[in-house]
């Protein structure tokens, strides 16, 4: 309240009463059990418009898939994750021997600080041969700052992790652009795209990402469909089986793009 308001006699008339706004939710913690028996513990943002307060099924399933296929997808590779939230897939990649991992999400200070916190928590599990970096990145922005984390002479990433991002239909062009600009032009470079249709009525729209990718120089392979034991949001509407299903795809450069 300004001194002018006091002068006019308003006093505390327009001051919000104590307890008028609900208190901000405190951060919580979640754990991901690795196949190796190790446990990755991460902090979740208490409440955030970009859903940093959840450990999503796609993130957990991506992490397990990366661990299962670490020798092919992760070991010695350069990895970029977009929309990382708590960053479990990035952490698993670093633990399993990736050469470089860059964990990114929207450049919101709270989200980025939380990713850095989780990277610090995981540091004792990460071998000295791996490096895990954290940065904010807005889809569609120039990717050159991300390349600065690569070893000298690096020309792209071997693995791009995209867990629960393709539901954002308006961002499909930017997601394709990221793949085009960030994936190495090699036959084994791969984007791992994993999602759950939490709102099943949007599934046809979400799936348009894949023909768009094929029309942009990529080959798309459906590598798994995993049905979780329970839904993430119990009271949501829509087909329960779809809401429990995690879809996984590997996307690579089409052969004619490598000539």
List SSEs in N-to-C order.
HEEHHEHEHEHEHEHHEHE
Bin the strand percentage: 15-25%
CATH top level label: Alpha Beta
Shape: globular
- Write the CATH fold name: Rossmann fold
Oligomer: single chain
> How far apart are the first and last residues' alpha carbons, in Å?
68 Å
Query: What percentage of residues falls in helices of 4 or more residues?
Result: 25-40%
Subcellular location: Cytoplasm
Binding site for S-adenosyl-L-methionine: 56, 83-85, 105, 139, 163
Enzyme class: transferase
Keywords: Cytoplasm, Methyltransferase, S-adenosyl-L-methionine, Transferase
Main traits of this protein?
Methyltransf_16, single chain, 7-stranded mixed β-sheet, 23% strand, alpha/beta, protein-lysine N-methyltransferase activity, 259 residues, Rossmann fold, 10 helices, transferase
